[in-house]
Design a protein that fits this description.
Order of helices and strands: HHHHHHEHEEEE
Strand content: 5-15%
Number of helices: 7
Strand order of the largest sheet: 2-1-5
């Protein structure tokens, strides 16, 4: 047992919410439509429930010194894809992304079993905020390339932005051309399909507008 004996409520009271924000606050500054914000919030709430279930199952297994159920990975993957299907049809990219996200979530937890944060609701909400952005940034870009010609990068300039993202704020380029950042290239914020550093992706709150 690496984690001290405590209840699920005690763990979350201990951790609090330090790395994530309420969804309305998180998505409000983004330069996207009200409809786009509402979709992100609804998907994030559904993803949150899924990842709370995943992380809490590992927490209880550690507390009881038992083995996590063998079907938890596949169950989580199907639930995650099921949540996405309410908004868009998952294609190969989304399926692969969901698989990688769940794998990484578990692997990181197993490397940090002594740290309560990695089991917590705070972590689940942080994951959900990022995932909702990733899914909709990707699908909105894929829709836009069918009938739009240009894209503009919008960075939330509130003192929390990366310098590299501030540098591309307001830049407009042809829609098929990737943005060049210090850490590599991205077609849209949180794009991991090109050669780009993870430092450019994690926690990114940027968005695009199309013309």
């Amino acid at each position: 047992m690496a984690l001290a004996k405590m209840t699920w409520d005690e763990l979350n009271e201990l951790v609090g919410y330090k790395k994530s924000e309420p969804y309305n606050k998180y998505f409000k500054p983004m330069q996207i439509s009200v409809t786009q914000k509402r979709k992100r919030i609804r998907l994030a709430e559904q993803i949150d429930d899924i990842f709370i279930a995943l992380l809490s199952e590992y927490f209880y297994a550690d507390q009881l010194n038992t083995v996590v159920k063998s079907d938890i990975y596949e169950r989580t993957r199907l639930e995650y894809l099921g949540a996405i299907e309410k908004y868009v049809l998952p294609d190969e990219y989304i399926i692969n992304h969901a698989t990688t996200t769940i794998t990484n979530t578990i692997e990181v937890l197993l490397r940090h079993r002594e740290d309560p944060y990695f089991y917590s609701k705070d972590r689940a909400r942080a994951i959900s905020e990022n995932e909702a952005n990733t899914i909709f940034n990707y699908t909105e870009y894929e829709d836009a390339i069918k009938n739009k010609h240009f894209k503009t990068w919008n960075t939330i300039m509130d003192g929390r932005e990366r310098d590299s993202h501030a540098e591309v704020n307001g830049i407009t380029i042809p829609i098929s051309q990737p943005f060049e950042l210090r850490g590599g290239y991205m077609q849209y914020p949180r794009d991991d399909s090109l050669d780009v550093s993870d430092d450019e992706i994690a926690g990114c709150r940027c968005s695009l507008t199309f013309s």
